[in-house]
Amino acid sequence: MWITLFVIILIWLLWMVGSRIWTNRLLKQSATVLSSEDFEAQSHGHDIVDIREPAKFKSKHIFGARNIQYMLLKENHAALRKDKPVFLYDENGQFVARIAKVLHKDGYNQVNVLKGGFNTYKGKVKSNQ
């Protein structure tokens, strides 16, 4: 019983660590990862895209951002210009690596990602609460 529980916990820990390493590797290959301060300073006047669910976006989001859900952006990113920098963020940095990879593969060379996602952002936000 204890051995089974230990094995399950060990597998879960390995999965979590492996997932984090894979995500960080994808981000480094496909995008520039920016701290909260750098993201705010560099994104001003550019395309800021929030890939979270609409309800979370409506509740609170980075000032100047627009909401394009993860699945919609993954299927069709024609709303983004390839010749301009794109700034992406999600809740905690999990899905943004996948989108960055898709965009980079499709010719977007100026993809920037908020390190740690919206949960770590300390800049100007718009809140509807």
From TrEMBL:
This is Rhodanese-like domain-containing protein. CDD domains: RHOD. Residues 42-126 form the Rhodanese domain. It comes from the Bacteria. Pfam families: Rhodanese.
